Amino acid sequence: MAEHHPLTTPSPNADTKIDPHAGAHTEHPSGGHGGAFPPFESHTFLSQLIWLALAFGLLYYLMAKVALPRIESILHDRSNRLAADLDEAQRMKSEADAAGEAYEKSLREAQAKAQAIAQETRNALSAESDAKRKALEAELNQKLAASEATIRSRTAEAMGNVRTIAGETASAIVERLTGTAPDTASLDRALDRASLAH
């Protein structure tokens, strides 16, 4: 097997070019400045355009058939969820408004009932007070009438006693002065005239 001398045998990765002027082999590494930038080389334009069209078509197909439908589905689901949430919020708001109106209505009814009960209580107390007052007035009137009747009877009795005492006194005085007792008819007429004069 032949030995590879590092100065005479080129490496497998090295490009060898013959320099007509030097007449010897010179090594140029593959990363050198030997050629133009590949996209700018005119003989590869057609293949580059074909690969560009294929890549663009594949990308368009993937976007149209895979990515965009998924995005559209996600957006549609999100829109449906938002619409459902908005409908639910509107329904809950309507229920809250209805509950508030029912509460206000029940509160007004309770206030009206309370006022009616208070008015009925005031009327009942007023009627009871009037009944008690009338009963007391009637009782007082009866007692007053009885007292007046008693006073009139006592007064009449006292006046009768006064008339009798006055008649007896007058008869005694006349009898003492004249020596004879006056007749009863004359004495009664004199007493009647005296009571009429007073």
From TrEMBL:
<keyword id="KW-0812">Transmembrane</keyword>
<feature type="compositionally biased region" description="Basic and acidic residues">
    <location>
        <begin position="16"/>
        <end position="30"/>
    </location>
</feature>
<keyword id="KW-1003">Cell membrane</keyword>
<keyword id="KW-1133">Transmembrane helix</keyword>
<comment type="similarity">
    <text>Belongs to the ATPase B chain family.</text>
</comment>
<protein>
    <recommendedName>
        <fullName>ATP synthase subunit b</fullName>
    </recommendedName>
</protein>
<keyword id="KW-0375">Hydrogen ion transport</keyword>
<dbReference type="Pfam" id="PF00430">
    <property type="entry name" value="ATP-synt_B"/>
</dbReference>
<comment type="subunit">
    <text>F-type ATPases have 2 components, F(1) - the catalytic core - and F(0) - the membrane proton channel. F(1) has five subunits: alpha(3), beta(3), gamma(1), delta(1), epsilon(1). F(0) has three main subunits: a(1), b(2) and c(10-14). The alpha and beta chains form an alternating ring which encloses part of the gamma chain. F(1) is attached to F(0) by a central stalk formed by the gamma and epsilon chains, while a peripheral stalk is formed by the delta and b chains.</text>
</comment>
<dbReference type="InterPro" id="IPR050059">
    <property type="entry name" value="ATP_synthase_B_chain"/>
</dbReference>
<keyword id="KW-0066">ATP synthesis</keyword>
<comment type="function">
    <text>Component of the F(0) channel, it forms part of the peripheral stalk, linking F(1) to F(0). The b'-subunit is a diverged and duplicated form of b found in plants and photosynthetic bacteria.</text>
</comment>
<keyword id="KW-0813">Transport</keyword>
<keyword id="KW-0406">Ion transport</keyword>
<feature type="transmembrane region" description="Helical">
    <location>
        <begin position="45"/>
        <end position="63"/>
    </location>
</feature>
<keyword id="KW-0138">CF(0)</keyword>
<feature type="region of interest" description="Disordered">
    <location>
        <begin position="1"/>
        <end position="36"/>
    </location>
</feature>
<keyword id="KW-0472">Membrane</keyword>
<dbReference type="InterPro" id="IPR002146">
    <property type="entry name" value="ATP_synth_b/b'su_bac/chlpt"/>
</dbReference>
<comment type="function">
    <text>F(1)F(0) ATP synthase produces ATP from ADP in the presence of a proton or sodium gradient. F-type ATPases consist of two structural domains, F(1) containing the extramembraneous catalytic core and F(0) containing the membrane proton channel, linked together by a central stalk and a peripheral stalk. During catalysis, ATP synthesis in the catalytic domain of F(1) is coupled via a rotary mechanism of the central stalk subunits to proton translocation.</text>
</comment>
